């Protein structure tokens, strides 16, 4: 009995030391994060993305009309915060730091949702440490609200809400989570249109689940309704300003907006392949098309090496986990 009491005392001391260390670690993390917000300089498009929204807020240029930039779709996420700051202060001095703090608030909301939904399944300590990762990460190290960070935020929030719906014991709460997840993923696609690929994969997965009767049609329709809510709001805006004034429906404006980007390269490849079909034999056509596709893939590879380096170990770990359970089926 004395030995057990001693072990319990040692266990309590270890737990106490771990709590203190965790608390110190979190404080140090917060300190470094605040320093990052105040003293880092972005060599990319942080200020430019704020300027894109300023064209609407400060100069009165209508979204997607007089402000015909493709980036303005994703930068719409920082527009409410910029508008609030501009109308309170009457200027833009200090706005970069303000938007950084607003991005911190968004990440805190994301981390809080994760913690609430998964603390019972994963444990409080694990959720807390993972939440710190969600707070600290920023695409291309631009700790601000712009189209990449907005797409990532809505992607993760939608995924968390879908998981929360599956974990929830209450039907009403689960339906609400799925509706909100649909809204989040629609906002993700609006912020970064090529993220529609995520929705396509999700639809294929859900279709397979429906065929196997793993989910009910009603559950998927609630998610779809959330997405259609955002589509409906966009349709109302388009009808209000006149669809012919929206740059997305003007061919030349779209070409200008996509100039130099991956979608433009894909479009150029298609046009060159079309020319080749009229001027060259079949073998030369295929060579031209494959060459263009190869250059696009090489460009994507150069941009996404880090993501691939992180994804491969996670994928291997997932396959090992599935194998231990006696199956490595994907669906």
What amount of the residues lies in strands? under 5%
Order of helices and strands: HHHHHHHHHHHHHH
Largest sheet: none
Radius of gyration from the alpha-carbon trace, in angstroms: 24 Å
Q: How does the helix and strand content classify structurally?
A: mainly alpha
Kindly report the average pLDDT value: 78
- Taking pLDDT < 50 over at least 5 consecutive residues as the criterion, the unreliable ranges are 327-331
Separation, N- and C-terminal Cα atoms: 51 Å
Characterization of the model:
The protein is mainly α. Helices cover 78% and strands 0% of the residues. The protein is built from 14 helices and no strands. Helix 5 packs parallel to helix 7 (147-167) and helix 7 (147-167) packs antiparallel against helix 8 (171-191). The protein is globular and about 75 Å long. The model is unreliable at 327-331 (pLDDT under 50).
Core attributes:
mainly alpha, 331 residues, 78% helix, globular, disordered C terminus
Brief synopsis:
With 331 residues, this protein is mainly α. The protein has helices at 2-39, 46-57, 71-74, 79-89, 95-122, 124-136, 147-167, 171-191, 196-211, 217-241, 251-258, 262-279, 282-303, 305-324.
List the helices and strands and how they pair.
Blueprint: H1 2-39, H2 46-57, H3 71-74, H4 79-89, H5 95-122, H6 124-136, H7 147-167, H8 171-191, H9 196-211, H10 217-241, H11 251-258, H12 262-279, H13 282-303, H14 305-324
Helix pairs in contact: 2-4, 4-5, 5-6, 5-7, 7-8, 8-10, 12-13
């Amino acid at each position: 009995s004395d030995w057990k009491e001693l072990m319990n005392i040692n266990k309590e001391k270890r737990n106490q030391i771990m709590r203190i260390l965790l608390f110190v670690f979190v404080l140090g993390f917060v300190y470094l994060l605040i320093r990052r917000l105040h003293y880092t300089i972005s060599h990319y498009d942080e200020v430019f993305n704020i300027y894109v929204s300023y064209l609407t807020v400060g100069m009165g240029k209508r979204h997607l009309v007089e402000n015909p930039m493709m980036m303005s779709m994703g930068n719409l996420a920082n527009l409410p915060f910029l508008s609030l700051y501009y109308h309170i202060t009457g200027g833009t001095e200090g706005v970069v730091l303000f938007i950084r703090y607003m991005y911190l608030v968004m990440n805190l909301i994301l981390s809080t949702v994760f913690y609430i939904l998964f603390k019972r399944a994963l444990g409080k300590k694990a959720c807390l440490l993972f939440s710190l990762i969600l707070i600290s990460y920023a695409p291309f190290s631009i700790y601000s609200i712009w189209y990449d960070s907005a797409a990532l935020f809505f992607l993760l929030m939608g995924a968390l809400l879908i998981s929360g719906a599956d974990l929830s014991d209450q039907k009403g709460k689960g339906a609400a989570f799925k509706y909100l997840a649909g809204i989040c993923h629609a906002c993700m696609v609006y912020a970064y249109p090529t993220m529609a690929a995520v929705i396509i994969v999700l639809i294929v997965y859900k279709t397979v689940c429906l065929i196997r009767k793993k989910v009910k049609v009603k559950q998927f329709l609630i998610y779809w309704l959330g997405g259609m809510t955002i589509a409906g709001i966009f349709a109302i805006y388009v009808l209000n300003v006149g669809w012919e004034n929206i740059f997305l429906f003007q061919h030349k404006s779209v070409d200008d907006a996509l100039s130099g980007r991956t979608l433009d390269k894909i479009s150029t490849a298609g046009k060159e392949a079309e020319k080749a079909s009229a001027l060259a034999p079949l073998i030369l056509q295929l060579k031209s098309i494959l060459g263009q596709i190869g250059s696009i893939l090489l460009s994507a590879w150069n941009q996404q090496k880090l993501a691939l380096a992180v994804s491969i170990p996670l994928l291997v770990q997932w396959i090992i986990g599935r194998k231990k359970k006696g199956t490595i089926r994907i669906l």
